């Protein structure tokens, strides 16, 4: 096994948000490497028990990152490494519930750093977000040196806040923090819903025989990153000394047009309902997203491996395997868009 993987053997690892879309994949991977214990701290506000692996070295603690009783319990187990993935996700959710966003992403992150510093935790890896740092005016490909003060949602502001607090804890207390900036994760493990990403929602609607809502001109792009590539980057970020104090993009380093994505998902799922025009969300101003991943390559040896076509196929397979649970748990309000009309939904 490569060093950055075997490093986790026998370690105690805390993963906040470890039941979520990215967290559940990270939990499974580290547990299978034979970590001594993987502690999942998750309030299950956006996660499902069936999505976390039932392995003997996984301890699931239901609680909030803002609840000091829960924090004392998990930090009392003396984690060697903390992956802080818990968050109030994401842009539209934060527009609808800005106070909740600030409490979870702002105060929750500050508390994680405080407890990690008090307990002498060896490494904290923070799940930052590319869309939260660069704004909509940055030159492409997006590089770590650039930063925007013109963010368009509370989520973007509080995810940046997590980086700023991280810098403070690193500079002032020497807490070994790594800031990994993700770009549009996709893959097995993400249950669709009103506040979820475009790929799971497109697949859900396509498998339901509904048209896929499209808001743009046809030219919009995103840098979609396969979830297991993100997991690989996280393992490296938790291990490599050169990563400490650094921020780095974790992306695929390539662009996919949203319109082409919708058409491809319809082809792969055999959906004949096509696409439908939907209203653009006010905050959704980014035409293209493309990250430069040179820094992560240089510092931690990160190299995205998944071909987009294969990643999509894996995701669709996962949907088919878990269709009953996904249909039961996907959360959409009635009449959310043209594409959701007629769908059985709950909130
Ligand atoms: N998915 C992406 O495309 C993407 C992009 C950039 C950054 N990120 C960041 O990566 C991290 C993981 O993203 P994800 O896609 O897995 O999201 P997710 O919503 O699936 O996972 C977040 C998890 O945090 C949990 N949670 C929410 N509030 C909590 C609280 N107060 N206490 C404890 N747990 C709480 C949720 O139940 C969920 O399991 C987040 O921090 C997110 O901001 C994700």
List keywords for this structure.
347 residues, Rossmann fold, UDP-galactose 4-epimerase, domain 1, 2 domains, 7-stranded parallel beta sheet, two-stranded parallel sheet, 13 helices, binds nicotinamide-adenine-dinucleotide
What do the pLDDT scores average to?
95
What spatial order of strands do you see in the largest sheet? 3-2-1-4-5-6-11
Q: Note the main sheet.
A: 7 strands, parallel
Helical fraction: 40-55%
Question: pLDDT below 50 for ≥5 consecutive residues: which ranges?
Answer: 337-347
The CATH level-2 architecture of the largest domain is identified as 3-Layer(aba) Sandwich
Number of domains: 2
Strand content: 5-15%
Q: What is the fold's blueprint, element by element?
A:
Blueprint: H1 3-6, E1 12-16, H2 21-32, E2 37-42, E3 58-62, H3 68-75, E4 81-84, H4 91-96, H5 98-119, E5 123-129, H6 130-133, H7 154-173, E6 177-182, E7 185-186, H8 198-207, E8 212-214, E9 221-222, E10 225-226, H9 227-239, E11 247-250, E12 256-257, H10 258-269, E13 275-277, H11 294-300, H12 308-321, H13 323-329
Parallel strand pairs: 1-2, 1-4, 2-3, 4-5, 5-6, 6-11, 7-10, 8-13
Antiparallel strand pairs: 9-12
Helix pairs in contact: 2-9, 3-5, 5-7, 8-10
Bound molecules: nicotinamide-adenine-dinucleotide.
């Amino acid at each position: 096994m490569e060093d950055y993987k075997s490093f986790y053997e026998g370690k105690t690892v805390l993963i906040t948000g470890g039941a979520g879309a990215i967290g559940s994949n990270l939990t499974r991977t580290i547990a299978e490497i034979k970590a001594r214990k993987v502690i999942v701290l998750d309030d299950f506000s956006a996660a499902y028990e069936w999505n976390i692996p039932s392995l003997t070295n996984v301890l699931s603690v239901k609680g909030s990152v803002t609840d000091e009783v829960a924090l004392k319990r998990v930090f009392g187990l003396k984690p060697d490494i903390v992956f802080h993935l818990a968050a109030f996700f994401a842009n539209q959710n934060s527009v609808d519930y800005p106070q909740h966003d600030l409490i979870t992403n702002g105060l929750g992150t500050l508390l994680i750093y405080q407890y990690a510093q008090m307990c002498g935790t060896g490494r904290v890896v923070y799940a930052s977000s590319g869309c939260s740092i660069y704004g909509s005016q940055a030159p492409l490909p997006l590089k770590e040196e650039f930063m925007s003060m013109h963010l368009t949602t509370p989520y973007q502001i509080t995810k940046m806040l997590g980086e700023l607090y991280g810098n403070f804890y690193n500079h002032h207390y020497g807490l070994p923090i790594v800031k990994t900036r993700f770009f549009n994760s996709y893959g097995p493990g993400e249950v669709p819903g009103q506040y979820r990403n475009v790929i799971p929602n497109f697949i859900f609607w396509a498998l339901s025989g509904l048209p896929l809502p499209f808001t743009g001109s046809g030219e919009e792009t995103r840098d979609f990153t396969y979830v297991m590539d993100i997991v690989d980057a996280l393992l490296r970020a938790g291990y490599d000394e050169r990563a400490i104090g650094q921020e780095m993009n974790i992306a695929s380093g390539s662009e996919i047009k949203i319109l082409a994505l919708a058409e491809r998902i319809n082809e792969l799922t055999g959906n004949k309902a096509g696409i439908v025009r939907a209203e653009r969300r006010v905050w959704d101003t980014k035409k293209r997203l493309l990250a430069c991943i040179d820094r992560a390559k240089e510092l931690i040896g990160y190299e995205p491996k998944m071909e987009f076509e294969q990643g999509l196929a894996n995701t669709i397979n996962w949907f088919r395997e878990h269709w009953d649970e996904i249909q039961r748990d996907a959360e959409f309000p009635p009449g959310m868009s043209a594409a959701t009309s007629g769908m059985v939904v709950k909130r």
